[in-house]
Automatic annotation (TrEMBL):
Name of the protein in its database record: 1893_t:CDS:1
Keywords: Hydrolase, Metal-binding, Signal
SUPFAM superfamilies, alphabetized: Glycoside hydrolase/deacetylase
Listed GO MF terms: chitin deacetylase activity; metal ion binding
Organism: Funneliformis geosporum
Signal peptide start and end residues: 1-25
Length: 220
């Protein structure tokens, strides 16, 4: 009984110190709750001239219209070359990209890339940047490129224009605080974007990078 009590006490202490360590590792700035669409901000909303946006209706993720009026990539692989890139411009070139970090998994990838002298692009989620800024710093310090992958990983065409702007800007703020960089490349979660989303991202200074080969490692 006595032994069990001591063990319990040690467990509590360990749990406490782990949670304190995690909190210390987080960004210091004030951010919205993680993994939820963040609140809109009037100052950020004003950055986008909504009269110039194509008025594609808000979609239900996974449901595609028979006619793809608004160039929804997740439905038809429709591309607009002025804002979207899927392939390297030069034949036989290829690029590695990793989504959804920074997390402890990023460190394994980082070790493998660095051991082979390969540079990659990491499309990071704002909520993960808030939690793991030191891992993002390691990625940047190793010379890899950072892109944005939203704050909450919610499909963008299912959100209002104000919400999409908030997804972009909260992530931008977290990346800026963590590594003092402002990304120029954006990867929409699940490849879900249309002409309205393109217009918003273009006005906020982003190009969209998608992919042609998926390893489906996120599936298991
Ligand atoms: Zn993702």
């Amino acid at each position: 009984m006595y032994t069990i009590k001591i063990f319990s006490a040690i467990s509590v202490l360990l749990a406490l110190s782990t949670s304190i360590l995690n909190v210390e590792a987080q960004l210091k700035g004030k951010y919205p709750p993680v993994d939820k669409p963040p609140p809109a901000d009037a100052t950020w909303t004003a950055l986008v001239d909504q009269t110039k946006l194509i008025k594609a209706p808000i979609r239900t993720p996974g449901i595609c219209n028979p006619v793809d009026t608004y160039c929804v990539w997740s439905c038809t692989n429709c591309l607009r070359p002025e804002s979207d890139i899927q392939y390297c411009p030069d034949k036989n070139d290829w690029a590695l990209t990793y989504d959804d970090g920074p997390s402890v998994n990023s460190l394994t990838i980082l070790d493998a890339l660095n051991a082979r002298g390969i540079k990659a692009t990491f499309f990071v989620i704002g909520s993960r940047v808030f939690e793991n800024p030191d891992i993002l710093k390691k990625i940047v310090d190793s010379g890899h490129q950072i892109g944005s992958h939203t704050w909450s990983h919610t499909p963008l065409t299912s959100q209002t224009t104000e919400q999409i702007i908030a997804e972009v800007k909260w992530t931008e703020q977290a990346i800026k605080e963590a590594v003092n960089l402002t990304p120029k490349w954006f990867r929409p979660p699940q490849g879900d974007f249309d002409d309205r989303v393109r217009g918003i991202l273009t006005q906020l200074g982003y190009k969209i990078a998608i992919w042609d080969l998926d390893t489906f490692d996120w599936h298991s």
